[in-house]
Amino acid sequence: MNARVLERVLDFGSNAVAAEVYGPHNVHLERLEALLGVTCAPRGNALTLAGAPRALDIAERAVRRLVEQVKTGRGVEAADVEAAVRMSRGQPSDGEDEAETGLKTRKKTILPRTPKQAEYIRAMQRHDLVFGLGPAGTGKTYLAVAMAVSKYLKGEVARIILSRPAVEAGENLGFLPGDLREKVDPYLRPLYDALNDMMPHDQVQKRIASGDIEIAPLAFMRGRTLSDAFVIVDEAQNTTAVQMKMLLTRLGEGSVMVVNGDLTQVDLPKGVRSGLRDALEILEGVEGIGCVEFGEADVVRHGLVARIVSAYAARAPHTPYDGPHGGPHG
What we know:
The protein is an alpha/beta fold. Helices cover 40% and strands 16% of the residues. Strands 8-7-9-10-6-11 form a six-stranded parallel beta sheet. The chain has a three-stranded antiparallel beta sheet with strand order 1-3-2. The protein is globular and about 65 Å long.
């Protein structure tokens, strides 16, 4: 017996919006059909969707997300169609306030591409300390920088501080050629890249010069109180327990700290315990702390990256952190 097939007509009210959602030669609609098993029949401003009830609901929500994206001034790419479908799976029919998870920066409005990314954004909005865990490509650093820029532009924080352990955990900068900036810049490049994607380059440089944006290796946090700031620590799995305690106790009034890392990629010397793992176990249950764990399904880089992450995870001898009693001790 065939599944019940329903039809639904969506009217965009604008040729320009419809064209952006459809894509060149309707390529975005073809992708939607392939992902959900629905059929899409465009006719001018109107799009007729047909399919099983559940798939039809997801398709309609995905299309409406794309429409809202176009209305913010952003175009639609293939990755956006896949992101809209991921976000629409599991979303209740009455929807969710997208404004809560949309981040406005100078260059663009950034929307979550997976439900876990939306959870991460909400955690950063609601908590003063957030841990973001998971593999590369899940948007941990990018979204944290977007949140920092959004809060800075709204005047909610006075400065942005971006840090990560340099040269793995030892921070042996003295062995590298050049002055201090030349030594640490290669290790902080992902943070620069994210900033330049959200603010004009000249504004980024101006704010770095004024001290409103500070990008520095973790060792530079020692002895400071970081007040009225949005602090992001990247690659935190490569901190020691002593470094992590030092870092967490820098948090001052009016500040938010986001600590990101991948516990399957610890580069510390054998026998040295990861400060990130240590902190997660010690701080479990402490009020005011958020923790979001990303998985392979949240990888939003090139589609091949998700398959690479999955293949490595299947072969790896270690297990991602799953709580103080379940995870391995690194």
